# Entry
Amino acid sequence: MQIAQRLKPLQTNVFADMDQAKADAIAAGQTIIDLSLGSSDLPAPAHVLEAIAKSLQDPETHGYSLFHSTRAFRQAAADWYTRKFGIDVDPETEVLALIGSQEGTAHLPLALLNPGDFALLMDPGYPSHAGGVYLANGQIYPMPLRAENGFLPVFAEIPEPVLAQSRMMVLSYPHNPTTAAASVKFFEQAVDFCHRHNLVLVHDFPYTDMTFERDHAPSVLQADPQKQVCVELFSLSKSYNMGGFRVAYAIGNPQVIRALRQVKACVDFNQYRGILNGAIAALSGPQTSVQQAVETFRQRRDCFVQALDAIGWSVPTPSATMYIWAKLPDPWRKDSIGFCTQLVKATGVAVSPGLGFGKSGEGYVRFALVHPPEVLEMAVQRLAEFFKTS
# Structure
């Protein structure tokens, strides 16, 4: 039996290795404190669950959900964008329902790249951004994100021969894993760069609301209100604690939306219509749960940063996301995987190695703040014990 060559770059996965390390630690009797996955432990809002529960009793929701049956959801998404960012959106041509934004980032390269074309990706960045490019037989040019540049890419560093073969750029701010934020001014520079080089700018935007110094992060469409080069992906996983419901949408350039729709038509129908009804309730209903979630993660952020500082590990206080991006102390600066595997084996504390997000992530680890403050403090106590014995 012969397996497709395109799967070769996907055969190694740091996070699968970490999952095995967690399983081994559990088998050895460790109690796991899992800070490695960015899956919110908070519940979805009650009015969202009520909308889904009501849908279950409606047999009209039990059949296939094709494009036109998502009209109400697409209208709710368009209205949400207009309220939040002041951008007019056509729900018929500029919005597409997604089964999670990861599905969108994986399918977009199939719509945009020919074999051998380059995609410009953030390094470090979210792993699914690379996976979709590999499946489309594209090439990846990693744009290094450095602390001295605020973890923003430097477009002038991209070689001209690469740009000549490039068709898309993927950005994502507020950023996972570095927690960096971007301004509208930066997005204007990115849009101008993509205009000049005939690139589609894809912005993965799940942490829209997860900001601690303003109401919400800026949208890339504020720098491209006519949607000439941009598509933005929004997931309800973080703002509304709906990660397991797998509901999101793409919004932006009509030509790109139409191309993505063609790819999806070959691969999937949409999710259960009752979930879309829950998403409509989330987008159009009261937003108090969003504010409560942000305040919860603010408190966890402050608790965790203070606890790390108390054991001598000083890290920047992030202005956004649900993570801490921490530079490893010596002697672990060049072995984030070794640090993480030994840490979970010795203490049961599981965190994500920076190398898993890209070459430029080496020397860092990512903590996901997905437990209450008392559990986070316990994790830091175990870290302190690990440092004493390692």
Summary: The longest strand covers residues 118-123. The CA atoms of residues 308 and 314 lie 6 Å apart. The chain has a mean pLDDT of 93.
